[in-house]
Amino acid sequence: QVHVVESGGALVQPGGSLRLSCAASRTIYAISAMGWYRQAPGKEREWVATSISNGRSIIYADSVKGRFTISTENANKMYLQMNSLKPEDSAVYYCKANGRVVGGSLRDYWGQGTQVTVSS
User: Chain-wide mean pLDDT for the chain?
Assistant: First the structure.
């Protein structure tokens, strides 16, 4: 069963903006953190930003600090506003929720990813 879904990826010109969405199923509870990661071809997946305790604390990778912003709608839904996009931001962006489902143990739930391409 799919528990986490990202959306909003698109082709955008350098300097443009996109807003990505991540929705975690309400069957996941006790979510301690939700994060954004990205992976470009030939590179390892890298951490982008994390929202802890439904936005109580938000941290960003140096590469996106000042350009990307996380906002949360509720404990199970967040957004990533991406401004001043650069070609090096091109990647598949993944959302991860850390929580549990009824009868399960605490673990990470990953989405399938959404493609962001920054190109002129």
Answer: 96
